[in-house]
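Lecture notes, unit on protein representations.

Consider one protein chain, 186 amino acids long.
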Amino acid sequence: MKIVKKILIVLGIIIAIPLVLAIFMKKEYTVERSTEINKPKDEVFNYVKHVKNQDNYAVWNKMDPAMVKEYRGEDGTVGFVYAWDSQNENVGKGEQEISKVNEGQSVEMELRFLKPFESKAQTALITEPISTNQTRVKWNFSGKMPYPMNFMMLFYDMDEMLGKDLQQGLDNLKKTLETQAEVAQS
């Protein structure tokens, strides 16, 4: 009996340590990446404010060409919803809704993930002029990990995990828009 009791105490301590640590750990994260695009700000903004255009640059949209998509509302305006459902666990199921448009500056969206797990996050695409024909685009992603799940942030670097996908998406966006410029000028 004493051995069983000791084993249970050790197991209790092993379980309690992460729960106690999670109380003191951050629960929120923000990831941001940026790129410079050789196009005027208005042209870049008018492209990124339309969620459907993410099919041309967002890494997650490109992961599963067979995913089912649904659109509700007018793209580029507050209230537009893009919903997706994929068998690919890296894409999952969820929806993205435009929550705010600062015309010519930024578009903010709420992401609601349903599968593989439920969560919410905020994302924004921000355009800033560098010159008349050059624009900086920032893409940020922020969310919360509720207690005790926030303990997992010790093992998962959200900046690294999401950052590479955001940067790849921005690189794809740059290539898409700059290639269109070259084609239009030909």
